[in-house]
Design a protein that fits this description.
- This protein is an all-alpha fold and 414 residues long.
- Helices cover 80% and strands 0% of the residues.
- The protein contains 15 helices and no strands.
- The longest helix has 32 residues.
- It starts with 12 loop residues before the first helix and ends with a helix.
- The N terminus is likely disordered.
């Protein structure tokens, strides 16, 4: 008797369709939004100091206050994003408001106006982050989290590369104010992209609104709590990339002169962003391939790469080729870490707490980065750059140990 071949089965969503229109829409929104806000960010120093005649301290105060508000907004945005219906409105409103307020700084005639607009824009940006991350978890199967978040991170990093380049071209063509004003176009296109993504996602099945409630305890217990603790250790050692640029500039200046050293350092920073972009997709694929504990292991690999990079920054090497190594390692490390953090949280967080979990993650990132850069800056000035990077390396090692323990325990429960 001849056996008939079984009917062909269509590939499962995670095998064929992880890069859905919804995922592409969210990735496009990240790219366009980053282009949009990188333009005013790149031109803010010129606007404040050259156009408005403000001292450099004003820039530091505005950026510090805006970052603090963004961190608080991410926590609040997480609470809002626990409701599947509400997270859609927060995402759209956050993208659109950030675009309009960021571009509005072009018309500022006083420093305080820049400060208010920048802080408000960064608050809106903070609110939208947990909603976007929760939306992405809604539209892909768990086995494809790594690839989906890797794609989103790649698009975001591409925006970080393209935005400053576009800013330079617009300034040369139209001037600073017009360049900042035109940043509203990619920003509003990002809002349109997120609307497109939402239309391609399943509508929430429940019409009952989730009450606004701060829920920290459920997030900080069990495997998710262990992950958050290890991530906190990493973020306390994750300094702003501007300090990496400063380290390279200081080391290169004696031989190349201040202006050339700065140019080379900015080139190394571009290589850092390129490495982050390239690393995102492979990190996501590896995260999915390794199964349930994949995101934690990829996260651990990224942290280990950071530890090596910071260790190399403790050395007073002045060769450009030598300095390129830690910049590329740090770029690949941040690409892996930012990609793996999100699928790790998405996989471990209860579905009804995803918004709060992503909000907590984003808050840890903001506060940790603030502490890292502040303490490292004090050590840098009071002791030496080597002492600062030794301190940061210690935090990377502590985070790595925590992640390896978390990954091992999770594998034992499978």
């Amino acid at each position: 008797m001849t056996e008939t071949a079984p009917p062909a089965t269509s590939p499962t969503p995670d095998e064929e369709k992880w890069l859905t229109p919804g995922v592409r829409g969210i990735g496009s929104a990240s790219f366009l939004a980053d282009v949009g806000h990188e333009i005013p960010t790149a031109l803010l120093p010129s606007l404040l100091t050259s156009t408005l005649g403000a001292p450099a301290a004003a820039l530091g105060a505005i950026e510090g206050f805006s970052d603090a508000l963004a961190g608080a907004a991410r926590f609040g945005g997480g609470i809002l994003a626990d409701d599947p219906a509400r997270r859609r409105k927060v995402a759209v409103g956050g993208y659109a408001t950030t675009a309009v307020l960021g571009a509005a700084t072009a018309g500022a005639t006083a420093v305080w106006q820049v400060g208010v607009l920048r802080a408000a824009a960064w608050t809106a940006r903070g609110l939208r982050v947990p909603a976007r991350n929760a939306l992405l978890a809604d539209i892909v199967p768990a086995k494809a989290y790594g690839r989906a978040y890797g794609f989103e991170r790649m698009m975001d990093n591409l925006g970080a590369i393209f935005g400053p380049l576009l800013a330079l071209g617009l300034v040369a063509w139209l001037g600073v104010s017009w360049a900042i004003g035109l940043s509203v176009i990619p920003g509003l296109l990002a809002a349109a992209a997120i609307i497109y993504a939402i239309r391609k996602t399943p509508h929430p099945t429940s019409r009952d609104k989730v009450p606004l409630k701060i829920r920290i305890k459920p997030i900080l217990k069990g495997d998710l709590g262990k992950l958050m603790g290890a991530v906190a250790a990493f973020e306390v050692g994750n300094i702003a990339a501007t300090l990496l640029i400063l380290r390279a500039s200081d080391l290169l200046a004696p031989e190349h002169g201040s202006k050339t050293a700065t140019t080379i350092a900015l080139g190394l920073y571009t290589a850092y962003n390129v490495a982050a972009t390239i690393a995102s997709i492979p990190a996501g694929r590896l995260s999915d391939k390794l199964g349930t504990r994949g995101p934690v292991l990829v996260l651990a690999g990224g942290v280990a790469t950071f530890a090596i990079a910071y260790g190399l920054f403790t050395i007073n090497g002045t060769a450009i080729a030598f300095l390129a190594i830690p910049f590329l390692l740090a770029g690949a490390g941040i690409g892996a870490v930012e990609t793996a953090q999100h699928p790790a949280v998405a996989a471990l967080a209860p579905k009804d707490l995803r918004g709060s979990a992503f909000g907590t993650l984003a808050t840890i990132q903001s506060l940790g980065n603030l502490a890292a850069s502040g303490i490292a800056g004090i050590l840098w000035s009071a002791v030496s750059p080597t002492a600062a990077f030794t301190y940061l390396t210690a935090w990377m090692i502590l985070a790595l140990v925590g992640l390896l323990i978390a990954g091992t325990r999770r594998s034992q429960t499978l």
